[in-house]
Amino acid sequence: MNLIHKEGHKQLPMPEGTEHFQEGFQRANVPPIEELVSMASEMNVKMIACQMTMDVMSLEKDHFVEGIDVGGAASFLNFANDANITLTF
């Protein structure tokens, strides 16, 4: 949820012991999370935020970046059934 949260992606911690990856990301010209999410949106990637998780965390759709959908497991499975690729995290 933090990847698509308007502010959450700015505070993602690097797992302990992997701080050196940041330099590697910069050397490899890996865009920041905000830009990657924007690129995904431009490529019509469908992003579905979990309604139950949002309820537990007291989050609303307007807390997230533009273009996300909100749904439960049944909504996701219905979409994923016809999808070429699905990623969950």
- Helices and strands, in N-to-C order? HHEHEH
Spatial shape: globular
First-residue to last-residue Cα separation: 8 Å
Beta-strand percent range:
5-15%
Query: Helical region count?
Result: 4
Mean pLDDT across all residues, rounded?
86
In terms of per-residue confidence, which ranges show pLDDT below 50 for 5 or more consecutive residues? none
Question: Can you walk through the features of this model?
Answer:
The structure is a single chain. The protein has a two-stranded parallel ribbon. With 89 residues, the protein is mostly helical. The mean pLDDT is 86. α3 (51-56) links the parallel β1 and β2 (69-71). The protein is built from four helices and two strands; from the N terminus they run ααβαβα. Helices cover 35% and strands 7% of the residues. It has helices at residues 21-27, 33-42, 51-56, 73-80, and strands at 48-50, 69-71.
Compose a concise summary of this entry.
With 89 residues, this protein is mainly α. The chain has helices at residues 21-27, 33-42, 51-56, 73-80, and strands spanning 48-50, 69-71. It contains 4 helices and 2 strands, in the order H-H-E-H-E-H.
